[in-house]
Specification:
Layout: H1 8-12, E1 18-21, H2 26-38, E2 45-49, H3 57-65, H4 71-76, E3 84-88, H5 100-109, E4 112-115, H6 126-146, E5 152-156, E6 167-168, H7 181-190, H8 193-204, H9 210-225, E7 231-236, E8 238-240, H10 257-265, E9 271-273, E10 282-284, H11 285-299, E11 309-313, H12 323-337, E12 350-352, H13 355-380, H14 386-404, E13 409-410, H15 413-421, H16 424-429, H17 439-454, H18 461-502
Parallel strand pairs: 1-2, 1-4, 2-3, 4-5, 5-7, 6-13, 7-11, 8-10, 9-12
Helix pairs in contact: 2-11, 6-7, 6-9, 12-17
Amino acid sequence: MDLSENSQVSQFYNGKNIFLTGGTGFLGKCFMEKVLRSCPGVGNIYMLCRGKRGKTPQERMDKLFSEMLFDNVRENFPGQLKKVIPVVGDVLEKGLGLCEEDEKLVTDNCHVIIHSAATIRFDDHIKLSLQLNVGGTVKMVEIARKTKNLISFVHISTAYANCNLNNIEERYYEMGPEYDPLKLLELCEWMDEDVMAAMTEPLLRDRPNTYCLTKALTEAYLFQYAADLPLGIFRPSIVGASWKEPSPGWIDNYNGPSGLFVAIGKGVLRILEGDVNKVADIIPIDYCVNMLIAVGWYTSTLPVEDKPLIYHCTSGTKHPYTWFQLGTLMLEFFSQQEPYNEVFRRPAVNFATSKMELAYWKLISHTIPAYLADGAAKVSGSKPVMRRAYDKVHKASSTFTFFTKREWTWTSVNCDMLWDLLSDVDKKIYNFDVMEIIWEQYYPNFFRGTKKYLLKEDMSEGKLVLAKQKQMRLKNMTHACVAIFLASVLYFLYPLLLGSTRS
C-alpha cells in the first residue's frame, strides 16, 4: 500500500524542486534517498557537487547511487534516480562556483533548499572552518534571495553549537560583538593562517573545537542577516547508525561513535577520558532524516515575518542511555556475541576521570603493547604499524573527550510541536519519536553494522565461530600472562618476606 497518497508531508513535496548541498555526505545522501523513496511526486533534486580525486560530479553521483543505501530505490523506484541532477559547484567558490546557466536553473526552478554541506572535522583550521561553514552559508543565502519560488530553506546546524551551556533551548543565543560572523570571515581574505591559528583559543573560549564555534557563528549570521527568509534551523546531536532504514545498523563512515566502536571492538582503544555516568546523546540517522523532511514541510507553512524556528533532534534528555550502559553492552557484544574477525587484543574499555589516570592507563594499555607488537613485527620482518596507529587513535579519541565528560539538557518544544502536527500516516512514514528506540537493540545492530558495512567482514557462521575461538585464546593468554606475572612477583618477594620473618 502506498501511504504517500495520504501523507501531508509527502504531498507537500509533490512537484517541488529541491536544491541540496552536502548530498554526498552521510546526512545529505540519506535525506535524498528517503525523499526519492517516500515522496514519489517530488520534482527534481539539484545536488551541488564538485569533482574530487579525479572523478567528475556525474561519476561521483553514479558511484553514490550504486551504494547499498540506494538498493531499494534502484529496485523499486528506478525512475526516481533520474530526478537527481548534479550541479557543478563548490561552497568555497564565489557564487558557489555555479556557472550562469546552473545558477539560473536553481534560482528559477527550486522551491526548497536544504543546506547540509559543512566540514564536520573537529580539528580543522579555523580559517577552513569559517570559509566552509560560515562562508558557505553566506553564499547559500545569496542564492536563496535570488530563488524566485523559495518556500522553505532549512539549514543543518548542530545541537552542540552552544555546548558551552548546560541547558540549551530551541532558540538563538547571541554571542557578543566580537563574534561578528562577517568580520571574522573577512579576516580569512587577508590574514596569515598562523596568525589566525593563534586567534583560535581566544575565540573558542569554552567551546571545544572550531566545528562547534563556526556552527554557532553560522546561526548568528542567519539570524542577523537572513531571518526574513522562510528559514528553519535543524540541530541534530551525534548522528549514528540507522534504527530501521535502510536496514538496522546501517552505517557508512567512521565519524563520531562508529570509529570509537571499531577501535574498542578491535582491542586497540582501551582507555578513554570521560564520565561513565554521563549520557551518550546519539540519534539514529533515519530519525534525523525523517525529522529533517518534516521540518522542510513545516517551514513552508509559517509566515515569513515570523522568526526562524530551531528544532532539536536529540535523544539524551527524553530517552537517556549512559556511557556505562553503552560500554557494558559493547564489551558483551564484541567479546562474547559477535567479535570482529581480526583483533589486536581482547576488547576492554575504561573511562579515566583524571589526566593522571588517563596517562597511566595509556602507558599500560596502549603504549607498552604497541612497542611490544612493533618489536615483534620487526623481528619477524613485518612492517611495524601499531605505534603510528595509536597516534591516530589518541588524536581521534581526544577530540571526543569534551562530549564523554559532559551531558546536556536540550529542550524539545518545537520538536514535540512538529511531531504532534503530523498525521498518523506521517508518523509512520517519518517517525522520529525517540521514545520508540530500544537501545538494547539499537546498539548491537550498530556494532554489527560496523562489521558488515564498514569493515565488510565475512558474516558467515563459520567465521563467527573462529572469531569466538580467537577471543577465548586471547582470554586464556591474558590469564596466563597475569598468572606468570604474579608468580614472578611472589618468586622475588618470597625470599625477602622470609628473611624479614626470620629476623
